[in-house]
TrEMBL record:
This is Ribosomal RNA small subunit methyltransferase A. One of its GO terms (molecular function) is RNA binding. InterPro entries: KsgA/Erm, rRNA_Ade_diMease-like_C, rRNA_Ade_Mease_Trfase_CS, rRNA_Ade_methylase_Trfase_N, rRNA_adenine_dimethylase, SAM-dependent_MTases_sf. It catalyses: adenosine(1518)/adenosine(1519) in 16S rRNA + 4 S-adenosyl-L-methionine = N(6)-dimethyladenosine(1518)/N(6)-dimethyladenosine(1519) in 16S rRNA + 4 S-adenosyl-L-homocysteine + 4 H(+). Keywords: Cytoplasm, Methyltransferase, RNA-binding, rRNA processing, S-adenosyl-L-methionine, Transferase. Its EC number is 2.1.1.182. The gene is rsmA. Specifically dimethylates two adjacent adenosines (A1518 and A1519) in the loop of a conserved hairpin near the 3'-end of 16S rRNA in the 30S particle. May play a critical role in biogenesis of 30S subunits. S-adenosyl-L-methionine binds at N18, L20, G45, E66, D91, N112. NCBIfam families: ksgA (TIGR00755). It is found in: Cytoplasm. One of its GO terms (cellular component) is cytosol. The keyword Transferase applies. It is an enzyme of class 2 (transferase).
């Protein structure tokens, strides 16, 4: 197990700096992303460059964006002989490198991300950035389980990811593979983005219904929806009937497809 950090480097908790020290786990990430030389890869948070190096040996090009300015020079020095690695300094949430100029490009996102950006990053990837071909991320184990949940364990995060992509857990990883050792275990997840183009108006309606449905956990779905959407209970129950949803359903029991049908029945 190895990692190369600049001397006197103190990892910052606020930047989610838990570095992967097990090369076998890095290989699992690379395998999960099925990298070939035609791939352009966006890496978020290269850190010590451990994953970056292996990515660059298989991919056509790697663009790595790192927020911690203390790591930029060591990364550039380490990769000075790699023609296919570009190190960019910045916050990936504010500065995605190729949004506008190359909107039709094909790229993969592969990263051991800082966990504090997980939800915001998903929003960026699926709602703002050009659609990636594939996304492979190391994230917190519990978050990976929530994202891949199915009825009767559905939740808001699962629906917001599954609306845009098919998620799968590749493997769970013990926290002992990171330095400093974090409090939680992790997982490698692979997200296969769906090819259909989402209609913004329909998307807004569906999420209005989903968020309304999950608004008060202990209440029944029909009551939540009636309150949040300002509709009579009978109108909501009529839409349930049209969408084939049982009257006493709870939000965790509904699949993405059920929510889509329900939004259609409510808003047409
Ligand atoms: N890739 C390395 C590895 O696997 O060992 C480092 C992973 S570490 C979990 C997360 C990295 O993301 C750190 O290097 C951290 O400085 C960087 N980072 C944190 N927030 C970031 C942000 N908003 N944008 C880009 N990089 C960020």
């Amino acid at each position: 197990m190895t990692t190369t950090l600049p001397t006197k480097f103190t990892p910052k908790k606020s930047l989610g700096q838990n570095f992967l020290i097990n090369p076998h786990i890095i290989d699992r990430i690379i395998d999960a992303a099925r990298i070939s030389e035609k791939d352009l890869v966006l890496e978020i948070g290269p850190g010590t460059g451990n994953l970056t190096e292996k990515l660059a040996k298989k991919a056509g090009q790697v663009i790595a964006i790192e927020k911690d300015n203390r790591l930029i020079e060591p990364l550039r020095e380490k990769f000075k002989n790699f023609k296919n690695i570009e190190i960019i300094e910045g916050d990936v949430l504010a500065k995605m490198p190729f949004v506008k100029q190359r909107a039709s490009l094909q790229y993969k996102i592969v990263a051991n991300i800082p966990y504090y950006i997980t939800s915001n990053l998903f929003r960026k990837i699926f709602e703002e950035w050009p659609r990636p071909e594939l996304v492979v991320l190391t994230i917190q184990k519990e978050v990976a389980q929530r994202i891949t949940a199915k009825p009767p364990h559905m939740n808001l995060l699962a629906l917001s990811v599954q609306y845009y992509a098919e998620p799968e857990v590749v493997v769970f990883i013990s926290k002992n593979n990171f330095r400093p050792i974090p409090k939680v275990d992790s997982a490698i997840i692979r997200l296969n983005p769906k090819s259909e183009i989402r209609n913004p108006k329909k998307t807004e309606e569906i999420f209005k219904v989903i968020k309304g449905g999950f608004s008060e956990k202990r209440k029944q779905l029909a009551s939540n929806l009636s309150k949040k959407l300002k509709l009579s209970k009978s109108a909501v129950l009529e839409a349930f009937k049209t969408a084939g949803i049982k009257e006493l359903s709870r939000p965790e029991n509904l699949s993405l497809n059920d929510w889509e049908n329900l939004a259609e029945a409510l808003f047409g």
